[in-house]
Amino acid sequence: MPTSDTKEALLDSAENAARRFGFDGFSYADLAQDVGIRKASIHHHFPSKAKLSLALMERYLSSFKDVCADIDASYATGGAKLTALIERYKAGSDNGQQLCLCAAFSASRDSLAPEVVSQIIGFRAMVSDWITEAFEKGRSDGSICGVTNPSLEATSALSLLEGAQLAARAASEPAAFDAAITLLTMRISLREPPITRIEQP
Amino acid sequence: MPTSDTKEALLDSAENAARRFGFDGFSYADLAQDVGIRKASIHHHFPSKAKLSLALMERYLSSFKDVCADIDASYATGGAKLTALIERYKAGSDNGQQLCLCAAFSASRDSLAPEVVSQIIGFRAMVSDWITEAFEKGRSDGSICGVTNPSLEATSALSLLEGAQLAARAASEPAAFDAAITLLTMRISLREPPITRIEQP
DNA sequence: AAAGCCCTACCTACTGGTAGGCAGGCGTCA
DNA sequence: TGACGCCTGCCTACCAGTAGGTAGGGCTTT
């Protein structure tokens, strides 16, 4: 049983709205209508929009860590891990309707509380580190070709993924995401199949 | 003499604000204070915010075409052209304080007038085509290595550039831009120096 | 005279946020 | 068992401030 159904519903609605419209693009009134409570009642759960955005990033970071851990547990090779992450970003793009929360918040950085900005930076660092490991593994197991500097490759890949989401969003065209990342995916060898995928409940 | 000093000043201010805060992040009141006229007077030049954003993208597209033409006139090799464009995107990032207007508008797509969305798509297509040509030239003159599919490379490069701006913006760290694009720049051979750079007035 | 430009004054709708109240569930203590 | 106080969760009503936009007047330039 979650802490509070309403609180979780508010976070869901807010995350959705933030990733679609940006931080300045949604209001408490929108959330209220979406969740089905009155606008003022939101303040009972989140006293300010800054606190809401903070909780949003906290949840997003922790759930993304889970995703990474899940990928690590499900796939063996660096290439398979990276492929799984790319798939995750593609799904997160939701056919060009959304951005990664990190990208959405980065764009409206100057409207955010300083703590949230720190969280964004932390999020990027976490994902970047994870991708670095994937590249290192991919280099040693041969599943990613042409790896010279894993850390740089990771930084570049992360920017590419967010840029690809941006491109897909502009055109409402999921194919734009695929096109942007093709060069990256082509470097991943599919010789070694992933180990059994753990089913999600 | 420009059409109108005030009109141009409004566009300057609006472009700056849009690239810093996004479409939903600035208001007529902000522009009025910045330019030094009253809020209502803006409507004399731009009857609605939608019209303003339209004019903004029009000017941005045309000025970016000029930039591309200027680069074409100033640099010979594909690698030099691409380098110049990258420099342009880096300058446009303004030490992580701004985004390309196209990227900023892409993020807040759902708040925009449909015509503006079309302009964004057109802008991306234009830049993508230009980069494609640069890659083709770079392949034939040997100034960019490893080029297999210029069109795909261009799509990828554009997403990378916008993603790099996003990364630099999140951290207010210009070095993040450089890190993200290093892999791309490393592919550009500097054997052939650019021809004489035409001075801007 | 007309057009261009900017003004004051005002509008409605909405922003995030506050004040205070009320219903119901919980444990505690008589 | 029942009364008490407290907490959670939501409500209505309201606040000051701001959003984009309108109406109409006046000065200046052509």
Give a verbal description of the structure:
The structure is a homodimer of 201-residue chains. The first copy, chain A, is mostly helical. Chain A has a domain at 55-185: Orthogonal Bundle (Tetracycline Repressor, domain 2). Chain A is built from nine helices and no strands. Chain A has helices at 5-21, 28-35, 39-45, 49-74, 78-93, 101-107, 114-141, 150-171, 174-185. In chain A, helix 8 packs antiparallel against helix 9. The first copy, chain A, is elongated and about 55 Å long. The model of chain A is unreliable at 192-201 (pLDDT under 50). The interface between A and B is large, with 45 and 45 residues. Chain A binds a DNA duplex (30 and 30 nucleotides) through helix 3.
Based on DSSP secondary structure assignment, what is the total number of beta strands of chain A?
A: 0
- Which CATH class of the domain at 55-185 in chain A? Mainly Alpha
Mean of the pLDDT scores of chain A?
92
CATH architecture of the domain at 55-185 in chain A: Orthogonal Bundle
Number of helices in the DSSP assignment of chain A: 9
Strand content of chain A: under 5%
The largest contact between protein chains, plus residue counts on each side, is: A-B, 45 and 45 residues
Rg of chain A from C-alpha positions?
Answer: 18 Å
In CATH, the homologous superfamily of the domain at 55-185 in chain A goes by the name Tetracycline Repressor, domain 2
